[in-house]
Amino acid sequence: MNPDLDRLQPYPFEKLRALLADVTPNPALAPVSLSIGEPKHPSPALVLEALAANLDKAAVYPTTLGLPELRRSIGDWLTRRFSLNHDTLDIDRHIVPVNGTREALFSFTQAVVERDPEGLVVSPNPFYQIYEGAAFLAGVEPHYLACDADNGFVPDFASVSEDVWRRCQLLFICTPGNPTGAVIGLRTLQQLIELADRYDFVIASDECYSEIHQPDGSGPVGLLQACAAMGRDDFRRCVVFHSLSKRSNLPGLRSGFVAGDASLLRPYLTYRTYHGCAMPVQTQLASIAAWKDERHVRENQMQYQAKFDAVLDILGSVMDVTRPDAGFYLWPRTPIDDETFTRRLLAEQNVAVVPGRYLSREVDGYNPGAGRIRMALVAPLADCIEAAQRIRRLIESL
Q1: Once rounded to an integer, what is the mean pLDDT over residues 22-50?
Q2: What is the 3-state secondary structure (H, E, C) of 239-305?
Q3: I want to staple 356 with a disulfide (CB 3.0 to 4.6 A). Which of 27, 50, 84, 369 is the partner?
């Protein structure tokens, strides 16, 4: 077996199960889960109808590059959403459909990284654990950049040493961040692009939460948008990852894409032909319907904002918690140790959350997730309100 498999840490939810194994939830209260970031809003009817209408395509082998119609719908969406120059995106060169961004984040790392014991994959901390596992199995080391309140939950890139940048092969950024919801601004993205040019590394921007924002806003800026503002229409050294899971409440569809630098996507496409991960044709046709429609996205945004309004109104006076820039998570401080708080919250109030330390790594004695919890506001509004009231009761009892 690959010896690097032994370096993989348990996933946060494995740690959570172990933490709660001996906890009996309060049987007098109905359970409310805010632990897993799985969207619970209804999937768009037009997407399900397109999927059902094309089930006969299960008899067709899909191609790895996917249907031109799918790539065109993705290209049109990217151009509209991120203010790209028209005709900049070549749908045959700049876009690769993927089966959800989780597998793409992992496989892209395997394709782009050169095995080197001194090589680094740099990522935010806390982070999506795929970044770390992908680095280990690509034969390099992960390097973590703390995201804490002092810097608005965005890594302090200016403090990163030259040695780290020289060794960096791939920089993961997550904007909006999971779990912090922090958005990296345009100028910072452009500074990262300049660093990538100087030190010859690739930027992989995980933008899966970009469409969960206040409905009256223009939405978070993206990496390709930063490229376009610099006149870099070739998107050199830059790729972005997007998904329908959060945007369209379709986590089970497993549909997303990678877009950006054609010189990176060409060999990555070759990798994928061997990887054997072509998106089923019926999924592609359903995805076209999703990328073309914005009405369901706005409805989704309004539902999340209603939850933030209600939950923050309940918890704002008893917790150190702020509204995120985007995304559907809250990242509050806990009045006691985050693991103890999580156990007591389940035992006394039957509400499930994730200890922040499980989403982070300790570096030089500091874990930026310790003393926080992640709350995914994915349950129905009434359940989120009920959970917030129970959390408040627990805090007031301490």
Answers
A1: 97
A2: EEEEEHHHHCCCCCCCCEEEEECHHHHHHHHHHHHHHCCCCCHHHHHHHHHHHHCCHHHHHHHHHHH
A3: 369
